[in-house]
Automatic annotation (TrEMBL):
UniProt KW Ribosomal protein keyword: no
UniProt lineage: Bacteria, Pseudomonadati, Fibrobacterota, Fibrobacteria, Fibrobacterales
Domain UDP-3-O-[3-hydroxymyristoyl] glucosamine N-acyltransferase non-repeat region, first and last residues per copy: 25-92
PANTHER family for this protein: UDP-3-O-ACYLGLUCOSAMINE N-ACYLTRANSFERASE (PTHR43378), UDP-3-O-ACYLGLUCOSAMINE N-ACYLTRANSFERASE 1, MITOCHONDRIAL-RELATED (PTHR43378:SF2)
InterPro entries: Hexapep, LpxD, Trimer_LpxA-like_sf, UDP_GlcNAc_AcTrfase_non-rep
Domain of life: Bacteria
Keywords: Acyltransferase, Lipid A biosynthesis, Lipid biosynthesis, Lipid metabolism, Repeat, Transferase
Entry protein name: UDP-3-O-[3-hydroxymyristoyl] glucosamine N-acyltransferase
Length: 315
């Protein structure tokens, strides 16, 4: 991360700096989502006034729109034309790859056709055609089968399994509109963090995060063709059947299950122990322990009654 102070970054972003709780200039040490940013980090907010998570925000430097109204408890406000676009500019400016050198444990097994530039732990196995890019870390006992790709800034725990064709850490499907009105790709530079003993099916994909890593816990199991979008936070013991997927910035709490083809829109929360039926389309957050089906998804008892009524009408 490049070293720069708040005033200098404000000049770089051509914004109007307003001190709030901070009493003097300070060093910017990184960037983070609004709910995670600390007093030396930069974040952004696209709303026009203080609402929701902004009430408890403690970012050091917060990017807001020029017409933003309110007094959030942050170090300083930086008023800009387009907070999202300015945040992207800040990330591109601040981010620097500073990854460790290649390190392969003596007991690791590396296929001759694999390419390993990152760190591989004890007794890990890297299969034929697999790629571990510089800045990636593979934990002890983890297995990459054939043609698995692990991007930079991905850290994988111990005893995980990645079946053929799995991809972890690729750029997420995110876009923003810059100051000139042009749509551009969001740089997802924050990578992925995966816990222990999780398994990823053939051709599954986990996208990298923007301001913070995409996160997956322990003992999760994902079938083939599962998609985990950028900035998702997946808990422990989560099961997802083939062709199910999570939109970006979705939170999945522990012990959830997703049947085949279930699709979850972004920026939602799936409560602990919830079950999503096959081919369901979830457009709203789901409470803990609930079972939902259909599109748009609804409690499964209600969905079943609706199906019966439709069949009766068809007669």
């Amino acid at each position: 991360m490049k070293k720069i102070d708040a005033e200098s970054l404000a000049k770089f972003l051509a914004g109007e700096l307003q001190w709030k709780t901070a009493t003097e200039n300070f060093e910017i040490t990184g960037f983070a989502p609004l709910k995670e940013a600390n007093q030396n980090q930069i974040s952004f907010f696209t709303g026009k006034t203080v609402t929701g998570e902004l009430r408890s925000a403690s970012a050091g430097l917060l990017l807001v729109a020029s017409d933003f109204v309110g007094e959030p408890e942050v170090g300083a406000l930086l008023r800009v034309k387009n907070p999202y676009a300015a945040m992207v500019r800040a990330v591109k400016f601040l981010y620097e790859e500073n990854f460790s050198e290649t390190k392969i444990a003596a007991s690791a097994k590396i296929h001759p056709s694999a390419v390993v530039e990152g760190i591989v732990g004890e007794k890990a196995e890297i299969g034929p055609g697999s790629v571990v890019m510089r800045g990636a870390e593979i934990g002890a006992g983890t297995i990459l089968q054939a043609n698995v790709t692990i991007y930079p800034n991905v850290k994988i725990g111990e005893n995980c399994i990645f079946q053929a064709g799995a991809v972890v850490g690729s750029r997420g499907f995110g876009f923003y509109v810059d100051e000139d009105g042009e749509r551009k790709m969001v740089p997802h530079v924050s990578g992925v963090r995966i816990g222990n003993r999780s398994e990823f099916g053939a051709n599954s994909v986990v996208a990298a995060g923007f301001l913070a890593p995409t996160k997956i816990g322990d003992d999760c199991h994902f079938d083939s063709f599962v998609q985990i979008g950028h900035n998702c936070e997946v808990g422990n013991r989560v099961y997802m059947a083939s062709q199910s997927g999570l939109g970006g910035t979705t939170v999945v709490e522990d012990d959830c299950e997703f049947a085949g083809g279930a699709q979850i829109a972004g920026h939602l929360t799936i409560g602990r122990g919830a079950v999503i039926a096959a081919k369901a389309g979830v457009t709203k957050s789901i409470p803990a322990g609930a079972v939902y089906a259909g599109f748009p998804a609804e409690p499964i008892e209600k969905w079943r009654k609706g199906i019966v009524c439709v069949r009766k009408l068809s007669r």
